[in-house]
Design a protein that fits this description.
4-stranded mixed sheet; binds adenosine monophosphate; 592 residues; globular; 41% helix; alpha+beta; 3 domains; 21 helices
Length: 592
């Protein structure tokens, strides 16, 4: 049996090696071939998974972590599951810390880890260290190429440029001499990234000095300026998480006249202070009054910036970035800017490793799913229907359509049976590999007693409440929440940053609507008997969420990976203080 499986799997791996080396010689990627490779991998998903686990365990069998678990060279899934425990980041922290401190012995991987990724930390409050290595880089590029192939088949682009709103945080060194950066930084700084972007016709219109600039406000301004300079050539607009695209065009609304002035005079605003960024921009910026006039006219002609993107960039074919999960609340604004341009959600992954590619790009982001690539890691899924404590993880090909699971990753970068904390729903299969819909982070967010509300429930409540009165032009720019146990009984607090003047009566109504929109039986019954107090809506000043973003960037997170924390616990004191210090009005629900 093994003999029959191995050659077919090996050939899959070889195909990938060939396409990687070809990248160096080829002008463009061979889309048909990439799709063919993906089809053969997913048709054989079960065997590919077994062989991937074998490869991971063979490469890393000498690592101390695996040695201590008594696998004794066995690489089959059954022995693996019997010997290796499910872990969280906390369990691995002491091992990772030793790597960070410079220990060169094989701790989690056979080959020493030389680079560490700093996860965005915005979901949990503080950044975590996770190992990064060449294999992780290669799987990143594999997933980029795969979704590119499917995207290009549906939405072909011409040779041109991309306005990529990407930012690299600083790479620094640990005291043990390892390189540390956010995962996106480690990817953007890798030489293979640029080559891959080239063969994917996705070269960033901005120079490296802008992407790697030390101040993201300045980089953002320059990205916009580069986009305008190359406006006719821009084929698509992208970012890692789509929040960055919305953030960029909101900024555009503030700085467009300054951008026009720079283009008119051919001189960069004095606000950009870093010499490397200034000199890189000086090479691109020439006085161009016609272009400045054109942009000025277009901006003045827009109604509340509706359709801004296609007006500015006439040849853009689509907008691309992660748009699901905590990014869904930004879709409305993105559509406003994009008018009828397709919005395509980018792939599903994390600093710990990639999971699935979006191979159905013509599906709207609300319905986007991700097909797991069976050779980029070994995947297990904890069924969430059953009693959590007893639920046994199942393999990639054993998941059932319609069920929800927590994702467990075993990666090429030293994570074994690692609980990612994400909840996904299986919506179907692509050949034998499941299609996953991202649901939410597993951590319960809002809970006081028997109530359970997740990030998704909060998002739906905010959506419902913000739709209440469109005549008032109420726009919720961003939101977060908190469980306030300092009152008796405790109650939910929702923070809103809104634009426009909204009457108190409307906000009172919104507050009641929020309270009624948490339909979880535990919440409703607790509210009815006042075991949970009235929900409180606190409106914060304009710019509060920008302060939160700045706070995280100050901690070393990159704008590229930023996700607004949707629930702020009292342990996340600094962010909680930012929110509380900026409250301008507060309302209590009278709904129950
Ligand atoms: P980071 O910690 O910055 O590496 O972020 C990884 C997390 O972002 C994942 O664990 C998910 O919770 C979320 N994420 C990544 N990709 C997607 C996606 N396509 N849709 C929804 N959420 C995603």
């Amino acid at each position: 049996m093994k003999h029959q499986i191995f050659p077919s799997y090996c050939s899959c791996f070889n195909i990938f090696r060939v396409s990687v080396t070809m990248i160096e010689k080829m002008e463009l990627l061979d889309v048909d071939k990439l799709i063919e490779e993906f089809e053969s991998l997913t048709k054989d998903a079960g065997n590919v998974q077994r062989e991937t686990l074998k490869k991971i365990l063979e490469e890393n069998g000498c690592a101390e972590y695996l040695q201590n678990l008594g696998l004794n060279g066995r690489t089959d899934p059954e022995s693996f599951k019997a010997c290796v425990p499910l872990v969280t980041h906390n369990d691995l922290q002491p091992y990772i810390q030793r790597i960070v401190d410079g220990s060169s012995s094989p701790i989690l991987t056979g080959k020493p880890i030389t680079t560490i990724s700093l996860s965005s930390g915005t979901t949990q409050g503080k950044p975590k260290f996770v190992p990064f290595n060449d294999e992780l880089m290669e799987t990143t590029l594999q997933i980029y190429r795969t979704s590119y192939a499917f995207r290009t088949r549906e939405f072909p682009i011409e040779n041109g440029k991309a306005l990529q709103l990407i930012y690299s945080s600083k790479q620094s060194n640990t005291k043990g001499g390892l390189i540390v950066g956010t995962a996106t930084t480690n990817v953007f700084r890798n030489s293979q990234f640029k080559n891959t972007m080239k063969v994917m016709q996705s070269q960033c219109c901005s120079p490296d000095e802008v992407i790697f600039g030390p101040d993201f406000h300045q980089s953002l301004y320059c990205h916009l300026l580069c986009g305008l300079i190359f406006r006719e050539e821009i084929q698509f607009i992208s970012s890692t998480f789509s929040h960055s695209i919305v953030h960029a065009f909101r900024t555009f609304e503030q700085v467009w006249e300054e951008l026009c002035a720079d283009i008119r005079e051919g001189v960069l605003t004095s606000r950009i202070t870093f010499p490397s960024v200034r000199s890189a921009m000086a090479k691109l910026l020439k006085p161009n009054p016609e272009l400045a006039d054109l942009i000025h006219k277009k901006c003045l002609g827009l109604n509340n910036w509706y359709g801004l993107i296609p007006e500015l960039f006439p040849n853009v074919k689509y907008i691309y970035g992660i748009m699901t999960g905590s990014m869904e609340p930004y879709l409305k604004k993105l559509r406003h800017y994009a008018r009828d341009l397709p919005l395509i959600s980018a792939d599903y992954g994390s600093s710990e490793g990639w999971i699935g590619a979006n191979v159905n790009p013509n599906v709207p982001p609300e319905l986007a799913t991700y097909v797991v690539l069976p050779n980029i890691g070994y995947f297990e899924f904890i069924p969430l229907k059953e009693n959590v404590e007893e639920a046994k993880p199942v393999g990639l090909t054993e998941v059932k359509v319609g069920e929800e699971y927590e994702v467990i990753i075993t990666s090429f970068a030293g994570l074994y049976r690692y609980r990612l904390g994400d909840v996904v729903k299986v919506t179907g299969f692509h050949n034998l590999s499941p299609e996953l819909k991202f649901i939410c982070r597993r951590n319960l967010m809002l809970t006081i007693n028997i109530d359970k509300n997740t990030e998704k429930d909060l998002q739906l409540a905010v959506e419902a409440a913000s739709k209440l009165n469109t005549e008032e032009k109420l726009e919720v720019l961003d939101f977060s929440s908190h469980v306030d146990l300092s009152t008796n009984p405790g109650h939910y607090v929702i923070f809103w940053e809104i634009s426009g003047e909204v009457r108190d009566e409307v906000l009172e109504e919104c507050c009641n609507c929020l309270d009624c929109s948490f339909v979880d039986a535990g919440y409703v019954s607790s509210r009815k008997i006042n075991a949970i107090g009235p929900l409180e809506l606190r409106v914060v000043q304009r710019g509060t969420f920008q302060k939160i973003l700045d706070h995280y960037v100050g901690l070393g997170a990159a704008l590229s990976q930023f996700k607004t924390p949707r629930c702020v616990g009292s342990t996340n004191n600094e962010v909680f203080q930012i929110l509380c210090n900026n409250v301008v009005k507060s309302y209590f629900s009278t709904a129950f």
